[in-house]
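In response to the reviewer comment on reproducibility (Comment 2.3), we provide here a single inverse folding case reported in full, input and output, so that an independent group could reproduce the run without further information from us. The structure tokens appear first.
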């Protein structure tokens, strides 16, 4: 049984439940996804299906990928390819389509995406450091302070929290509750926030 699909983050809003409670939700456009490749234990030594999502212009697809899509019987190249492990591999076939109705209201899902890139940032923003004193004469408002002893160990220890690249990393939000599913619009609405910017690619899987 397939447990996940590819989609994108549309944005955040809020919904009013039947009891009148307002909850913050994230709208995800999930599917339709098509099976591009079926991997069997006999050939690849494990069971999985490769799903594709989103249209892509044929002129932007190289020849190996073009042949890959033709072998699956797909006339329109797909923009995103992801692999999902499955057990009942016999029930899948090339070109098979899966939509948002794979999920139902009340399900718990995990959403994987790429967090927003914030560039090179300091320790206050990157690691939530407090910084120096906010007083007259202080010149270390945003400095990290001491990063290592001089004589022993005479070096900066590996893993020290310092300024650097912030964000643009693979992140996962787990145990999010599905509030509503709208198959006609390919929308899955989950409670809470998910990683990444609006329009970012996400993987939605049953928890």
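Designed residues, in position order:
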């Amino acid at each position: 049984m397939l447990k996940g699909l590819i989609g994108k983050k549309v944005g955040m809003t809020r919904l009013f439940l039947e009891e009148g409670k307002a909850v913050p939700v994230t709208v995800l456009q999930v599917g339709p996804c098509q099976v591009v490749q079926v991997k069997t234990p006999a050939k690849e030594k494990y069971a999985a299906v490769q799903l594709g999502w989103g249209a892509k212009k044929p002129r932007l697809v190289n020849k190996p990928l073009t042949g890959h899509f033709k072998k699956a019987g797909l006339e329109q190249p797909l923009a995103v390819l992801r692999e999902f492990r499955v057990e009942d591999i016999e029930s899948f076939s090339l070109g098979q389509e899966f939509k948002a109705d794979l999920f139902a209201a009340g399900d718990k899902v995990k959403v994987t995406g790429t967090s927003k890139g914030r560039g090179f940032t300091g320790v206050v923003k990157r690691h939530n450091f407090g910084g120096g004193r906010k007083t007259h004469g202080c010149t270390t408002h945003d400095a990290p302070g001491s990063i290592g002893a001089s004589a022993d160990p005479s070096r900066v220890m590996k893993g020290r929290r310092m300024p650097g690249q912030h964000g643009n990393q693979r992140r996962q939000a787990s145990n999010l509750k599905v509030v509503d599913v709208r198959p006609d619009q390919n929308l899955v609405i989950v409670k809470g926030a998910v990683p990444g910017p609006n329009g970012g690619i996400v993987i939605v899987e049953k928890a």
